[in-house]
DNA sequence: ACGTCAGGGTCAAAGGTCGG
DNA sequence: TCCGACCTTTGACCCTGACG
């Protein structure tokens, strides 16, 4: 026993709990607060005394102090790298069975779903980087967190837009194939999800990639060319898709300080859409969606608790999910844009684009998707992406 | 359970309190007396009976007897180093934080937001009922919870669809006007929200109204006529809007057992869309949206806690919010349907419909909305709804 | 094997609520 | 106003599983 005093209330400590030396009272209080997702509100000035005798007077300030003292619900240090302390971090775990009652063999302990999604994302970003290195002179794109070289960036042409969409589609399929929950689905359902999600997920990706830009009213395409709001209308953006992406998605993402974890979660949630057209096994898709949703909500709550003082993080999961309706609407308009562009012969629509973006009424010829789905991951992707050059 | 009789008044005891076996009454009396430092004085001989029926006759004697029975106001152990007295000692503690639980009056003074929304909804439903009573032979619709009379229901005609949309728009404006958060907005922003939300909110309303139907693949329009999935395609539903409403909204709502509270919350969240076109005061709209979101998430968590065994309620807020992207997409298609129907002269588009559903690019002539917004609630609504007859 | 640490749960006895 | 039936929260104490 190194220390004896509770870092929260100065009572006698009983050891380290959730990352902080604390007493049994503060330990129990913290667990209950996390478990029941309590959101307390201070009735005074947010600076109430939290001492042994007064600790029950204000739960908001007590919880605040727990967090300040280092208590964590998932133990992940908020923004620091910690590859070492991945072992042994404190955490509020899942509820256990009641003591004294019969045990129900519970299944858990598997790797966090959201971490898996981050890995899948990193894989695809590496793929993209290597492709871009070969097709342009830009620095590789490191998972949306690299600083931007404005000097190197150039404005997108109509051709860039078409190529970018094509690239994104190829990467999208690779991404999907790397998700276990996807691979277990029937072939037809795979096609349904790909077709139903392509446009939205491309828009989501473009938006997330663009939050690091500091130049106003501009988005960053998949091949790292830039597309400004006004410029876009000259290259076929009849529906102001670019403007809407910036106003309705990129700026809100910036305000919310959306991070990579949240991005990959939203992407997967969007993708596993059980009510997508022609989906036969809705339950399987729904299960996958809800599994991601559960991880996502948990992480949002954790993040909110680590940032109690910052209102941005309150109701975080809801705020982020509310980006999706706009996203859906914009994606639909993007499809219209592409349809119109094809109608006027402005853009060269290849078969993959036709299959995934222009969702026709007719039951699609599954040839193209079959080919993409059948090929093993990483095999000649570069070749496939560059085939358009 | 050690003893059963209160040592102070012989009432039934509820356990040991402050060091004495006692009832809840004596427990509460002792706490209040100590907390408020009451000094009672006996008006008789200091030997009043303290029994269940007479205990409130003399507070001085009651408190005296509490103390005699062993109640202690301060359990400070005689010495700090008495490791033996680790047993809990009775004490009146300091005042704690408010917990706010018991039904009705809610936390921090102001009425719960979601309750306000339910009231607004009920008001509009009453309005609708009275309108329908005058224009059809159907029983009044009681807030979505009345049983359906299949014999009385009839299939919707194209005319019904147009009328239904018009009715919904009028009620939509009335509903918005009844929300305080709406009335505080600038005139232009009001128009922006109404235009941006009309289609989605009509679809949401139709869907929620339809969950009580037990007949398959059918929705219930605002004037209580029925519209089947197949039948709809014959009356201008080119985009399969009806089918999508059923598959993507109504059925998921049924699976989730969505209730009225959740419906009104989603409606308001959808309505207060800060990124709607032409909105100048995004912050005000966002504040309104997030206020509803907060109430909504809180209620979802409460509902989940009440139904721990039922998996349906896990992540409830997220599951419900995920109805909105589909809803948005469908609403957009409904707009297209209406546009096409007008193009082919199939439907009579009145000015309100033109203004709210067919969001043109041109900055709209604010005449029509101004009129609607200016008129006091409840004034000649019936006349306005029936103007089309 | 066995103690320590840090998760989890329990439930008596504190607390607060609010109609009467 | 105060009372007290009824509810929630607290925290001392105990159980469990991982690790050395």
UniProtKB/TrEMBL annotation, chains A, B:
Record's keyword annotation contains Calcium: no
Domain annotation Nuclear receptor: ranges: 3-78
Ranges where the NR LBD domain occurs: 109-360
CDD domains tied to this protein: NR_DBD_HNF4A
Alphabetic keyword roster: DNA-binding, Metal-binding, Nucleus, Receptor, Transcription, Transcription regulation, Zinc, Zinc-finger
Coiled-coil zones: none
UniProt keyword Amino-acid biosynthesis, yes or no: no
Tree of life domain: Eukaryota
Cellular component GO terms held in the UniProt record: nucleus
Compartments (UniProt record): Nucleus
Entry's family note: Belongs to the nuclear hormone receptor family.
Protein's name in the database: Uncharacterized protein
């Amino acid at each position: 026993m190194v220390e004896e005093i509770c870092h929260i209330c100065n009572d006698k400590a009983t050891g380290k709990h959730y990352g902080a030396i604390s007493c049994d009272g503060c330990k129990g209080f913290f667990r209950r607060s996390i478990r029941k997702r309590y959101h307390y509100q201070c009735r005074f000035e947010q600076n109430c005394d939290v001492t042994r005798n007064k600790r029950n007077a204000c739960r908001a300030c007590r919880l605040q102090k727990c967090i300040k003292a280092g208590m964590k619900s998932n133990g992940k240090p908020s923004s620091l790298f910690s590859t070492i302390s991945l072992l042994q971090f404190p955490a509020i775990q899942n509820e256990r069975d009641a003591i004294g009652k019969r045990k129900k063999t519970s299944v858990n302990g598997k790797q966090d779903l959201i971490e898996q999604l981050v890995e899948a994302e990193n894989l695809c970003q590496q793929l993209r980087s290597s492709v871009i290195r070969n097709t342009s002179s830009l620095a590789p794109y490191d998972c949306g967190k690299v600083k931007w070289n404005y000097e190197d960036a150039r404005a997108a042409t109509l051709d860039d837009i078409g190529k970018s969409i094509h690239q994104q589609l190829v990467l999208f399929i690779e991404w999907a194939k790397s998700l276990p929950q996807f691979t277990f689905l029937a072939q037809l359902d795979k096609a349904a999800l790909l077709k139903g999600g392509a446009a939205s997920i491309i828009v989501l990706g473009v938006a997330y990639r663009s939050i690091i830009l500091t130049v106003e009213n501009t988005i960053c395409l998949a091949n790292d060319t830039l597309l400004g709001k006004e410029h876009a209308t000259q290259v076929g953006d009849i529906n102001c898709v670019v403007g809407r992406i910036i106003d309705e998605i990129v700026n809100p993402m910036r305000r919310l300080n959306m991070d990579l974890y949240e991005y990959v979660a939203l992407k997967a949630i969007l993708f596993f859409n059980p009510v997508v057209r022609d989906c036969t096994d809705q339950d399987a898709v729904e299960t996958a969606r809800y599994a991601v949703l559960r991880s996502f909500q948990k992480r949002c709550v954790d993040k909110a608790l680590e940032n109690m003082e910052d209102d941005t993080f309150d109701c975080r999961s809801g705020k982020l999910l509310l980006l999706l309706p706009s996203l859906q609407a914009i994606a639909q308009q993007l499809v219209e844009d592409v349809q119109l562009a094809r109608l006027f012969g402005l853009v060269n629509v290849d078969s993959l684009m036709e299959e995934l973006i222009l969702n026709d009424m007719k039951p699609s010829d599954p040839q193209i998707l079959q080919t993409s789905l059948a090929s093993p991951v990483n095999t000649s992707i570069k070749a496939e992406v560059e085939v358009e050059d």
